[in-house]
Queue: 2 jobs
Job 1
Amino acid sequence: LAALPEEARPDYDRRLADLILTLKPDWILLAGFMRILSAEFVAQFTGKMINIHPSLLPSFPGLHTHRRALESKSLRHGATVHFVIPELDAGPVIAQAQLDVLPEDTEESLAARVLKLEHQLYPEAMRQVLARHVRFTP
Ligand code: NHR
């Protein structure tokens, strides 16, 4: 759902929530979703909304994770699938995948290798959720 020009955040969040409530999806999976969602929005979908984040959380919540991993000389990096709670990138972890950071890595090379991991990890994590091997408990 694209934001309208000059649309205020609460208005966008309400429009998106209304659309999702109409669709009644079993799950809401964020993938490359770049807007922070309000606590009110998230509360309507507790335990149903899942995100994949390109770092080994709790390391590097937020943006520019690959650059920050390199700057902090991390030896390992990766991706995390987690339930979405109001606090950004702080919800319960469902699954993680890791890789070695290489001496020659750049932000771009690391981003590309992590993206490949993400494409394996998200379906694996969702298999765990759908099999009820993992669930959100408030
Ligand atoms: N919303 C809530 N309440 N909780 C989470 O855990 C969320 C969320 C919304 C998105 C994805 C997340 C990520 O995987 C996500 C998790 C965007 C930003 C951000 O700073 C941060 C984290 C994530 C997504 N967005 C800026 C904003 O002001 C815009 C940045 C830009 O456009 O470049 O919305 O990393």
Job 2
Amino acid sequence: MLKKCLFPAAGYGTRFLPATKSMPKEMMPIVSKPLIEYGVEEALQAGMSDICIVTGRGKRSLEDHFDVNYELEHQISGTDKENLLSDIRSVIDQCSFSYTRQREMKGLGHAVLTGQTLIGDQPFGMVLADDLCINLGGPGVLAQMAQLYKQFRCSIVAVQEVPEDEVHKYGVISGQYISEDLIRVENMVEKPAKEDAPSNLAIIGRYILTPDIFDLIHDTQPGKGGEIQITDALMAQAQRGCVMAYKFKGERFDCGSIEGFIEATNYCYDNLYT
Ligand code: UTP
């Protein structure tokens, strides 16, 4: 039912300069796999095999990564290194990839609007690949959310409790608890000061969105620095009772920050690679 997954991947990744001067943040590896490949695997596990990526200048390596590399594959064919490419080969075989470029980096909302041409008029998943989510031995976070979508047929955002002094980095929600891990969203504030935060439940980089989000983002006024966020559009959906917040099962690492990236590397090395 949910076939498409959008990956906004056009951001500058300034927190990782100089590494991100000429390399996309999404290509930074956690151990030996780029962040975006973890995200695509998670989408695939949720049944979304149409991968729609919003890229920008200097992001060509994203497209190359999800393509064959004949010379390299020929070179290592028949050697014990061949199996190092088995995961990415399997991803390439199972997915279709389409790309569009965001010409000006005017924020996540603007990146989502840029992706509309790839998504069309259907509900879709969205992954911010710099948030790495791992649920050892269980379904991935997007698969958990796709399951909920079947029941509620509305937008769903993944949320996590964060310390009070970190709420200013996130969109923060509050609402009515439907069960222990599910909240019908009534209020949402983008990057609030801790005194103004409606709770400590922060939206992380996993979403299921219904396509009316595009028109709603269109109507959103640019905020700080001319950036267009998606919080206002989500809030408009929430006012109609159409946004659920889900406290997911699993670990999430903010790999857009250096501390999160190191934590993710250690966690994945210990749990996935040894
Ligand atoms: P971030 O807020 O992490 O921004 O974007 P950033 O530019 O990637 O990183 P910093 O803060 O400068 O270090 C969240 C997500 O939205 C995408 C990013 O690629 C990331 O996946 N994004 C952001 C876009 O695609 N376009 C934009 O204009 C902004």
